[in-house]
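Quick one:
INPUT:
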């Protein structure tokens, strides 16, 4: 009888220790998951048609304002970026991107973001604040090239038909140009 009570007490003690351990593991896991979040967003630049388009390979640095903690990431082909597992707190999110057409010229922008139990959003719209020359569509470029080619051919034909200008071919034109030039 005494032996059965000892076995019963030992079983209850082992069961209690296992139960308390599992409760502590569950509580620590839920506390950890509740104290982290992330930052995500999109990096866009203004193109020559004045539209904002996604920008790939921008460098994003997320720096904690509460302590020495920093994370670096880059934007994807669709311009998106994300950083997860950040402790709750305030962060400075900065983006650095090389200019697509100007060498040795970079864009830089930053935002303050608070992370509390989830993802925070920080989108960037980079613009160089200049009056950009608009791009032409492929059809417009083709049409302009055709018009300039046709007008050049018409002008050459008119020059050949003029009185007093001999039609001696390209050698004559090159010689006359060299004579005028030098």
């Amino acid at each position: 009888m005494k032996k059965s009570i000892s076995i019963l007490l030992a079983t209850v003690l082992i069961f209690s220790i296992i139960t308390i351990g599992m409760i502590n593991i569950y509580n620590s896991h839920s506390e950890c998951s509740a104290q982290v979040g992330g930052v995500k967003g999109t990096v866009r630049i203004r193109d020559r048609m004045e539209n904002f388009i996604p920008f790939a390979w921008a460098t994003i640095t997320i720096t904690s304002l509460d302590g020495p903690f920093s994370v670096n990431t880059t934007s994807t082909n669709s311009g998106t970026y994300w950083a997860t597992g950040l402790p709750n707190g305030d962060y400075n999110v900065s983006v650095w991107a090389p200019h697509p057409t100007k060498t040795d010229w970079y864009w830089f922008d930053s935002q303050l973001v608070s992370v509390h139990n989830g993802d925070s959003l920080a989108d960037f719209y980079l613009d160089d604040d200049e009056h950009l020359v608009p791009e032409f569509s492929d059809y417009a470029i083709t049409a302009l090239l055709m018009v300039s080619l046709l007008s050049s051919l018409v002008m050459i034909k008119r020059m050949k038909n003029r009185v007093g200008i001999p039609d001696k071919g390209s050698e004559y034109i090159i010689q006359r140009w060299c004579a005028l030039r030098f």
